[in-house]
Each structure stands twice: as structure tokens, then as C-alpha cells.
Amino acid sequence: MTNWLPDVFSSPKPVVGMLHLSALPGDPGYDSNAGIAAIVDRAKRELDALQSGGVDGVLISNEFSLPYLTDTERITSVTMARVIGELSSDLSVPYGVNVLWDARASIDLAVATDAAFVREIFTGVYASDFGLWNTNVGEVSRHRHRIGAGGVKLFFNIVPESAAYLADRDLSSIARSTVFATLPDALCVSGLTAGAPTDTQSVSIVKQAAGDVPVFVNTGVKAENVADQLSVADGAIVGTFFKKDGKFENSADQSRVEELMSAARSYRAEAAA
């Protein structure tokens, strides 16, 4: 696999900021009185904070659709498409989408909104907080082909949050077989939950096993550890640190985005020197 990252991102070792949409119609937390307009308004503010703060890309997800479904309702991706359509004129960085936790719906949404990439759980069987969680990467890959989504890059999260792999396999073996058998465009390594630290050793293990496939740190990246994480990983996806006071439920805080991105740029400049 050739290095495709420069074709999508303008900076080496890109930092992708999470744009967490508010609870959507059908979700337990949806505010039907405020309606879709409130979701769009918050999303626009979040996008402005992330882009003004200097992120290299944005990943739009229904993070507040808790508790998540593994086979989502149609209203979820339909509403996300509506919101992304309203954001489209303001998007100035590469963006991806993630319909938690539904691989097919995520790819469908990417095609509908011209997203460059998707992050999802594509492989494995898990015991999770959301029940027994199965996948079918062969079926999803064929669906991707049928709908003309070959250009959409797939980020495989091989250490999903709030779940444990049912097979007794080590991380290196999982990474090697995932790369060989399922053809991911990138691998993501996570901690236990959103914002939870990702062990640098785990990232190193996956990186060594992944060959030419890029590896992203998926959770727990902060201004104080971004240099260490990027010294191993090919990129990072950041959500919780960018929030006000570093709390998952809060809105994005531009000053925190600027703080982390300044540290990331400093690391990249030193690495290139």
C-alpha cells in the first residue's frame, strides 16, 4: 500500500478533530422542542472552533446518540446527512463520518456527503456494553464496491471502546490478520472509552504489525502527550481534550484546540528538521 495520507491531508501526521453531534431524532437524549435547528447551530459552532483552532481534518459522528445501536435506525444517518449538508459551505478541511456503530450506514453517509473517510468497527466479534457485537467485513466491503465508495478511506478501529474481543488473540495478531485479510486503509487504536488514554505500547505493537497501513491513536490524546503519540503513530483523532475543561459532554473550546495543535506543529517541525 502506498502512503495515501498526503492525498487527503495537507500536513504530515494529521490531527483529526471530532465533531460530536447532539442527540438526534430517535435518540433518548434528543430535544424535540429545540429540534434539528439546535443540532445544526451547535454543529456550526463546533466546526468553527475546530477549524479556527487549526485541526488538519474533522470527523463528524453521532457521539451523543447514547446508548449506541449496532444496527442503526434510518433516521440517524438521514439526520446526519441533513446536518452535514448545512455545514458543507463552512467545511474547509478534509472530513470523515462515523455512524456509531454501523459500518454500512457510515459508508452510505460518506457517499451521500462526499466525505473522504469513515471510521468504524469493521472486523471482529465483541462482548460490549451494547450487547454481543458482531461484524461482517466481507458483506460491508462488497456493499462499498456496489455503491461506488471505493475512494472513501476506511479507518478500522481494532480496539473498540466499551468492548472486549471475544477471541483469545493478542493485539499484534489481530493487527496482522486484519491488514492481510480485510484490506483496511488505516487502523485506529483506542482506550476504554472516549477520552481514555491509549497506551503508547499498544500503538507501537499495532504499528509494527501494520506494515505500510497507517495507524492512528483514537482516544486520549492531549496537548501534553501529542508529541509522544505522534512519534509512534501516523496521526491522531482527538475529541475530549478539545472540549471545554476537557469534559466529554461539553462543547469544543478553540483555545484548547489551539493548544494541542501548537504542540503538534512543534513536534512535526522538530521531526522534519
Automatic annotation (TrEMBL):
InterPro entries: BtpA (IPR005137), RibuloseP-bd_barrel (IPR011060)
Pfam families: BtpA
Similarity-based family: Belongs to the BtpA family.
Alphabetical list of NCBIfam families matching this protein: thylakoid_BtpA
Listed name of the protein: Sgc region protein SgcQ
Organism: Paramicrobacterium agarici
